[in-house]
């Protein structure tokens, strides 16, 4: 049974003149994003975890001690897979040989707990590229091969350092679904460094917020997104990511019915999806408004019973509210950015039962 503390890191020291003091715990499954502005120390934390940079501290992964006051395992004993911004493939080897590098050119037979060769090829869509040389691959294809090679080294932990930031937007959008599929199919925990909130919203299960060499908060994505004491919820583009399950499809209007905790959303769907498919919904704080009564006639598709969990003033004009979906407010959380005037005119307070009107919610497959 995995627990939140399957990955525990704490590093403290100076990198040149830069003080790093970073401590967090993360579960041994899913994607944990390390998010923060450029130069806040994200890469340095990954390098410390990989054993490539040595600072005082501790690092425990899945019950193994990689570093503590008495231990410092060298990088090759840590079993990490590392994916960098730029894919560094061996130029003289085919895609297939690159993928099989860590198993000395051999496809290992399937075994319990081992990432299978065919599975990786399939998940990353590499079948048709196997005989190619790296110089004949697009940037996105190269990065997919680099991810495959890292996975086939059978890591206990996959470290990804801005794996999409060297790619143009279109290529990034092509790769994201592959990362989402990996995340569904494989049990290897991933620490994913990014300064792109969009990637966090789409991929992360857990979030470690970093600033100036330190960790200001860490925990499940939804909890961090909707913590109004943190900077994320106060940003203009604040949003929550909801994990939803397809319940049905309205053929006539092309609408997907999606279950989240405490509500059912109707969202325009590109295609019919199997009931039970998992999707991620993004709901921006600016797309949610509040009604005390259920509006009798509205063009808004999603008008959802909810309760106000908490509220915080952002500036002289606006407030940010945390809502709990459902009549009892015990479901998933939403953020709503409203004016202070509306708060006063509607006589809102914490605990008030309201209707959340969601003007738009965008979909990403999981
Ligand atoms: N070995 C080192 N010697 C001296 N300074 C270092 C060393 N490693 C990192 N630094 C400094 O530590 C700070 C944090 O760097 P780091 O690359 O970890 O940040 P980051 O959050 O990953 O940034 P980016 O998003 O731009 O990659 C920077 O000021 C960097 O110059």
UniProtKB/TrEMBL annotation:
Pfam families: ABC_tran (PF00005), TOBE (PF03459)
Key words, A-Z: ATP-binding, Cell inner membrane, Cell membrane, Membrane, Molybdenum, Nucleotide-binding, Translocase, Transport
A GO CC term attached to the entry: membrane
GO MF terms held by the record: ABC-type transporter activity; ATP binding; ATP hydrolysis activity; molybdate ion transmembrane transporter activity
Domain (ABC transporter): residue spans on this chain: 2-237
Domain Mop, residue spans: 297-366
Highest taxon in the source lineage: Bacteria
Transmembrane feature ranges: none
Family recorded in the similarity comment: Belongs to the ABC transporter superfamily.
Listed name of the protein: Molybdate ABC transporter ATP-binding protein
Organism: Nitratireductor indicus C115
């Amino acid at each position: 049974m995995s627990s939140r503390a399957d990955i525990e890191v704490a590093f403290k020291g100076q990198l040149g003149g830069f003080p790093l003091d970073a401590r967090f715990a993360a579960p041994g499954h899913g994607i944990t994003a390390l998010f923060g502005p450029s130069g806040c120390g994200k890469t340095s934390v990954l390098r410390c975890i990989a054993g490539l940079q040595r600072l005082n501290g501790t690092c425990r992964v899945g019950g193994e001690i990689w570093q503590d006051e008495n231990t410092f395992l060298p990088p090759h004993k840590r079993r990490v897979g590392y994916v960098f911004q730029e894919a560094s493939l061996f130029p003289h080897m085919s895609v297939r040989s690159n993928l099989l590098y860590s198993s000395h050119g051999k496809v290992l037979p399937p075994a319990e707990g081992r990432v299978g060769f065919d599975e990786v090829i399939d998940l990353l869509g590499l079948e048709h590229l196997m005989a190619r040389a790296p110089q004949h691959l697009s940037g996105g294809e190269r990065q997919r091969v680099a991810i495959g090679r890292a996975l086939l080294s059978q890591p206990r932990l996959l470290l990804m350092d801005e794996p999409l930031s060297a790619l143009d937007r279109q290529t990034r959008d092509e790769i994201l679904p592959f990362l989402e599929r990996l995340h569904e199919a494989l049990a290897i925990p991933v620490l994913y460094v990014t300064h792109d909130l969009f990637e966090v919203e789409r991929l992360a299960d857990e979030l470690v917020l970093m600033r100036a060499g330190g960790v200001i908060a860490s925990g499940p994505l939804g909890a961090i997104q909707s913590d109004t004491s943190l900077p994320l919820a106060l940003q203009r583009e604040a949003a929550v990511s909801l994990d939803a399950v397809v319940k049905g499809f309205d053929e006539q209007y092309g609408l997907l019915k999606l279950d989240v905790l405490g509500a059912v959303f109707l969202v325009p769907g590109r295609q019919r999806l199997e009931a039970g498919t998992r999707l991620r919904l993004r709901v921006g704080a600016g797309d949610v408004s509040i009604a005390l009564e259920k509006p009798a006639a509205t063009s808004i598709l999603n008008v959802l019973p909810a309760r106000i969990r908490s509220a915080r003033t952002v500036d002289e004009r606006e407030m940010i509210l945390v809502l709990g979906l459902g009549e009892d407010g015990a479901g998933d959380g939403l953020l709503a950015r409203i004016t202070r005037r509306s708060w006063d005119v509607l006589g809102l307070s914490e605990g008030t039962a309201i209707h959340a009107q969601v003007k738009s919610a965008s979909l990403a497959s999981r």
